[in-house]
Known about the structure:
Blueprint: E1 2-3, H1 14-26, H2 36-56, E2 63-66, H3 69-83, E3 90-93, H4 99-112, E4 115-118, H5 129-135, E5 140-146, H6 158-164, E6 172-176, E7 193-197, E8 208-212, H7 238-274, E9 279-281, E10 291-296, H8 301-310, E11 313-314, H9 330-336, H10 339-342, E12 345-349, H11 356-372
Helix pairs in contact: 1-7, 2-7, 3-4, 7-11
Amino acid sequence: MIYFDYASTSFVESEVLESYSKFLKDNFANADSLHHLGVISSNYLSKAREQVASFFGVGEDEVIFTSGASESNNLALKGVAFKYASRGKKIITTRLEHSSVSKTLEQLEQHFGYIIEYVDVDENGKVDLKQLERLIDNQTILVSICAIVSETGHRLNVEQVGEFLKKYPKVFFHVDATQLIGKYQINIGNIDLLSFSAHKFYSLKGVGALIKKHNVDLIPLICGGEQEDGLRGGTSNVPSIMMMSKSLRLAYENMKKREKYVASLYDYLYEKLSLINGVTINSSKEGSCYILNFSVLDYRNEVLLNEFSKKEIYLSSKSACSSKDKGLSKIVNYLYKDERRAMSSLRVSFSYRNTKEEIDIFVQELMDIMKRIKRVK
Length: 377
């Protein structure tokens, strides 16, 4: 079995899995209970919050634990939209966002009367700052831009955008950093809200966080108890939160070593694909080395994926949250204005466990598939 779908989700590190099993057995009490076991759980929750805050250089009260990036994105976008509706109802984003951002903004537009504007991004992931300046007016309350595009790996210049937005103190800046956290460093000094999910960096599913700076207030989406400073009701998932903080520590400790190794895999596959007639690379060399998107022209991506699956080689064509929207990749089509390219795009996403030998097998299978199945005319 060859797994090339780490941008969708990852395995759980063995060290984390062992710790989780032990922790779950010994620490199951509700962190809001007043008895001794509840206090122990509460202390663990505080410890995890302190550790996560330290990685981002923020206060502990600026870390909001959630069920993952989709919830974090919804809380950031709707939380700001509803809190500051009296100030304005314009939000600016890009055409490259994950569906948990794009569909949330569509909902705000269709059902709540918000105005959604789109700033252009070039083929290298650079946001057009001059256009962004033209789009911002006194009705603008939020700019939301992803750090790394989940389909193609383009790395957007979010730190530069954050610096640019300093001249607009009433416009908040949200970054969906789901594909970045645990893989690259980021300076969030000029970012007001930042979302991420633990299962992207070799941890458990169902847990993530929203970094929310003191200068921004939110209307909560989930009401109930006073968990997460009143912004996210519900019993705290202490074991998973503890494991997320552990996985984050491991990711930061090994970040440079893993990035160097994965970059060598990226370059190796990039060169091999470049030699195949009919294959076009959609990723940028300036982007994330963890994601390589390419098109096999005139072959439908779902057909190719099915052929690879028969050989137990697993990759994808889109973000997992958009995979049921068959056919054309809106992101590839936006970047290159080429439906032929967008209908045949595939995404390989790496971890430090992948090898060049796996890439050799994958490339050979790709060439075999191209020989044995018919092209789409």
